[in-house]
Amino acid sequence: MEITDMSKARSLPEIWGGIECTINRVGDKYFRQLERNGHLTRPEDLMMFAELGLKTLRYPVLWEQVAPDGLDHPDWSWPDERLHMLRDLGITPVLTLLHHGSGPRYTSLTDPQFPEKLARYAGMVAERYPWLEWFTPVNEPLTTGRFSGLYGIWFPHGRDNLTFVRCLLQQCRGTITAMEAIREVIPNARLVITEDMGRTFAIPLLQYQADFENMRRWLSLDLLFGRIDRDHPLRSWLLRYGALEKELEQYLESPVRPDVVGLNYYLTSDRVLDERMHLYPEDRHGGNGRHCYADVEAVRAWPEGILGHAEVLRSAWERYRTAVALTEVHLGGNREGQLRWFLEAWQAAVKLKNSGVEVRAVTAWSLLGAFDWNRLLREEKGFYEPGVYDVRGQAPRCTALGRMLRSLSKSGTFDHPVLTAPGWWRRDDRFFHEDCRSSVISPFAAKKESSRERPLLVVGRTGTLGQGFARICELRGLHHILLSRQDIDIASSAAVNYALETYRPWAVVNAAGYVRVDEAEEDFQACFRENTLGPMTLAAACREQGVALLSFSSDLVFDGGKGSAYLESDPIAPLNVYGKSKADAERHVLSLFPEALMIRTSAFFGPWDKYNFVTMSLARLARGDHVRAAADMVVSPTYVPDLIHTCLDLLMDQESGIWHVSNDGNVNWAELAASCARMANIDEKGVIRCTAAELGFQAKRPVHSVLKSERGIVLPPLDDALQRYFAECSVPLV
């Protein structure tokens, strides 16, 4: 991906921030993002945002939160505290009053009095905070209208065009009446209207539906800009589904026009309609009553790829000739993807601004991440996407996105070795099926790795972790070099320095080591050379050459006496030689190189090799053999893909010190074998439950070595990891 020289730019867009703050209703239940991300009770977050260099923040003072029981009984304590803090910090809020909501229980999107009630609330806000200037009364009215009135996902759960049109008109009318009420108090108040802005593509049979959806995507903005006149292609459609002539005329006459068109653009925004439903997952199947088809993300099914930020901004500017902004830029998934996505948005905004398009800002959305958007906020399943901060620890933890924002806010530039490659949405391995691939070279095709790119150096070519890192780096588009013991002796300073000078890595992953726990009791010199001296040598060299280092430790640094899960801060007391070699490595590595990242993990299993307890146990049981396993030793098994993905993210975040990374849950070895047998439909009677003493281990092991993180990393539950193991396993059981 080309990195623009921002120093040559004549002017730069602003960097804004935003907090995922949705309060949506499903049936009689409200789902509240501010409670789940902790911001509701954490005012100090605002100081963190100021430290990023943010001067403008999309901020919620939500109707459902302030006046849940009626407009005569508002509770202003929360916005009083927060808005005064923002003013003291020099941050301008763009105030949101309704964010994917249907209002409190005394109204709804189909309530005829909804616009007047929202206007009354908006006026109350203006009277209380008359120094405010920027407002978004309703976020994404068209999108909320579709989800609430057409798809039946959110309240009032409509599934027809009549309800959709009514929800849309109510929100747009509410936006106008709210701004009118605000301007009675704040005459210069300005309107930022936001809308999701994707485009629909289709195979020829369904082009008519795509054409309709591409006109419909502008409806909320066209209404507010007074463009729904008698020549508008969707005016008759609106009238057919419940709009009245007089209310459409009101939009033409309204003095309220948006001051900034905010465009929220995601990788899922652009869609493809395809009648070949068998090519796509069943949850993408649907239709319009005339044809059945799959409705899928264009990024996964369209050879030319996505519309892109530049085209989204340009098309809105050309249509309305009003300042535009990217008001939500967020991507779930891995860290380099998040960095690449935001950089792509920033570069598009800078380029357009310097070509004459009035681009106001690029917004880092989901500063605190987002919960359960993968299920469209229909239920709470605990699925979390980190944003600029990761809120799963005792306090929000700044990710690599935070460093990016600080740099862009200060200088307009940011650099990281992972940004030299394109995001997965620009690569040709992103498709659902082979038919999606273009027969011609796409302008979005991934470029080949350059010899000038700094790689990730992975040591441990033949081991489970080394092979796993290589696979996942390939999947994530991370330039890497995998070395074996023959390529590098990590206990030799000369060999390590030669490798660092030759390959010029930005980081080293030490996935090598002595792993034979029982044999280490007799072969302790070899164990300490590989597990202690090697990491120490790497640490000294990486410190000298300014290279990040990731190395691994083990749950066997603990003696098991605690009886509950171990945290990073718990004292260590290894029971065997292997555990002592890891404990010594932790101490010496972090003494030599405090910026090193040391991961403690436990009992890992993966889908790609046969040398782990889960795979070997299943193979024996499938052959009809017995598996003897300890029922008195409790561990926290760790799925290798989850482990590696998380470690790579932490490495890019420049985290350091000791971290516990294992899947959420604990189990004894015997029950793990039996549970896997049941999931594989293999007779679990072959699992022989016994004690650790009966297994005759040469090295003493802790009876309870479950790991838990107090620093904020929680991998998916063990049951979920095991299900994915069976779905992804490429190792035959027999």
Give the structure's gist in a few sentences.
The protein has 24 helices and 32 strands.
What does this structure look like?
The protein has two domains: 6-227 and 255-377, TIM Barrel (Alpha-Beta Barrel), CATH 3.20.20; 448-728, Rossmann fold (3-Layer(aba) Sandwich). Helices cover 36% and strands 18% of the residues. Helix 13 runs parallel beside helix 14 (335-353).
Tell me the layout of helices and strands.
Elements: E1 14-18, E2 23-26, E3 29-32, H1 33-36, H2 45-51, E4 56-60, H3 63-66, H4 77-89, E5 92-99, H5 114-128, E6 134-139, H6 141-150, H7 161-185, E7 190-196, E8 200-202, H8 207-216, H9 219-224, H10 235-240, H11 245-253, E9 260-264, E10 271-274, E11 285-287, E12 292-297, H12 298-301, H13 309-320, E13 324-329, H14 335-353, E14 359-364, E15 370-371, E16 384-385, E17 389-390, E18 397-398, H15 400-411, E19 456-459, H16 464-476, E20 480-483, H17 493-503, E21 507-510, H18 524-545, E22 548-554, H19 577-592, E23 597-601, E24 604-605, H20 613-622, E25 627-630, E26 634-635, E27 638-639, H21 640-652, E28 657-660, E29 663-664, E30 667-668, H22 669-679, E31 687-690, H23 692-695, E32 715-717, H24 718-728
Parallel strand pairs: 1-4, 1-14, 4-5, 5-6, 6-7, 7-9, 8-10, 9-13, 13-14, 19-20, 19-21, 21-22, 22-23, 23-28, 24-27, 25-31, 29-32
Antiparallel strand pairs: 2-3, 10-12, 11-12, 15-16, 17-18, 26-30
